Amino acid sequence: MATITLSQLTHRYGAGQLGLSDIDLEVAEGEFVALIGPSGSGKTTLLRTIAGFLRPSSGVIRIGEREVVSHDGAWVPPERRRLGMVFQDHAVWPHLSVQKNVSYPLRRTGTPRRDLDTRVAEVIEQVGLSDYASRMPNQLSGGQRQRVALARAIVARPQALLLDEALSALDEPLRARLRMEIKRLTREEHLTTVHVTHDRAEAIALADRLVVLNHGEIVQIGTPQQLLREPASSFVATFLADATRFHGVVSGHRFYPQHPHLRPPAGITWVDQHQRGESTHHATLTVSPDDVRLTRLDPTATPPEDHARVVSVLHGQHGVEVSIDWAGTATRVFQRSTDLVEGDAVRVEIGHARLFVGGPARQDATVGAW
Ligand SMILES: Nc1ncnc2c1ncn2[C@@H]1O[C@H](COP(=O)(O)OP(=O)(O)OP(=O)(O)O)[C@@H](O)[C@H]1O
């Protein structure tokens, strides 16, 4: 296993489109890192650059002891980087059995027969396919084919494992099971892993550290708990925890919201992002869906001015997601259970909020789709 180090990595596509901007990142030996961010933020570009499918415009990539992309233009092609890759679409060879698919990387490098048989049997067992070794891919389920792809990616003990939406094509509950198995397997094999996913729950469940990208830049790196507890910007709070943003101004250490009815709660965490020379008075209050309480108002009485309306109520396995319209601001609220229904008038109370003062203007841009 190896450390992956990226230094000042920048990529511009042919049309001038910025893919990556000045990325510095070190993935430690045996660490599991997930790349997350809105659509177009650069996740795929970054993974493809590490894999060697894309040659960055500038910067250095080191995998283990070796520079695979250097300042002086030196370049190691993908097949010589000793990386394992798993894509979304079960890329296994249809004309080869499970055993032959998995053993292929070892046959290619001329591994002696006995070593090959032992290692292939070991990996096939690790992914739970021992009873299927002689089957052809068309006799397997989607989940089983993805396990074959995973076994083939790790059989040659790669320096690192790259996962590109590897679980996205699978349905629950299979997806959740394979997610846990990947976690176990990467730990057992002490695999350095970089995982691109659109699924925040998956990233949070699997990763030792999350790398949040936006506009081709890293906007925050940290453990899932750190990022959830201490998002560095209103963008990260909104993106990772579905927080709602309310804009306003700060003056004399008080927040004045634009939102006509918002009463800032007593529990505010101030995050001062003020940058010298910038206008500092703009501020964004983020409210996490867990920190809002809703009380149904008497439907026969005229609702007070600051009421909100329930727009939708989605019951799920682990609770209820209530969306409200609060003077034009769509706000998400998580509740353990509720008897609220669409159209109800509610009173809104905020338990805790984070106030981001100043900071880069573009973090307030639309978060975008996953
Ligand atoms: N082949 C290409 N030519 C030009 N621009 C590209 C190309 N591929 C990606 N881009 C641009 O580079 C930026 C980063 O794209 P990338 O595909 O890495 O994002 P992503 O985070 O993986 O997005 P998604 O979640 O939608 O897959 C985007 O602005 C995108 O439009």
Please, could you describe this protein's structure?
The structure is a single chain. With 370 residues, this protein is of the alpha+beta class. The chain has 8 helices and 20 strands. The protein has helices spanning 43-51, 98-108, 113-126, 142-154, 174-188, 200-206, 224-229, 234-241, and strands at 4-12, 18-27, 32-36, 58-63, 66-69, 83-86, 160-164, 193-196, 209-214, 217-222, 244-251, 254-257, 267-273, 282-287, 292-296, 308-316, 319-326, 329-335, 345-350, 352-358. Helix 2 (98-108) runs parallel beside helix 4 (142-154). The chain starts with a strand and ends in a 12-residue tail after the last strand. Bound molecules: adenosine-5'-triphosphate. Adenosine-5'-triphosphate is lined by residues 13, 15, 17, 19, 37, 39-45, 198.
